[in-house]
Design goal:
With 189 residues, this protein is of the alpha+beta class. Helix content is 23%, strand content 25%. It folds into two domains: 84 residues, Roll (Outer membrane lipoprotein wza fold like), CATH 3.10.560.10; 67 residues, wza like domain (wza like fold, 2-Layer Sandwich).
Amino acid sequence: MKTWTRIRIICLAAATAAAAGCSNTHLPDGPPLAATSAYTLGPGDRLRVTTFGFKDLSGEYEVATDGTISLSLIEPFSVRGMTPAELEKEIAGRLLAANMVRKPQVSCEVLKYRPYYILGEVRKPGQYPFSNGLTALKAVATAEGFTYRANAKTVYITRDNASTETPVRLTASTPINPGDTIRVGERYF
């Protein structure tokens, strides 16, 4: 009987050590996937472009699915990956090059960010509007929480324009960017 007790203790200790090793897998807590300091434009963003003193060159525009924007009197061009400040300079340069405006002063602001997506083990998977300060935990709450099968410790995030998903330990500060896809996996036990 003592031999079986020792074997059980050894097995229990081995299982505990294995579980401790598994829970400490190399998952980032969020900062390695943190949002970049400057927001970059992409398909689905809605913008307000203002050219001061020129009402016809101002308006609200949406970035098309191919990443281009069509402004009044300017040929469509790609804005994918540009910051709003870079877009302001690009529009001013195009207006200047076309001799439409002598000293263009252009302002660009994002009115509506592209949505993010959440799928997997949440009650209401789908597409949701992005808001500043969004975290993975807030995204799960927006999708009405986890299902009973959900792994509430790890989520898988595919950043906008990335081809692979990254497992991330779910914390209150795991950042989400516009266009990201969050997948909540199943727990095994």
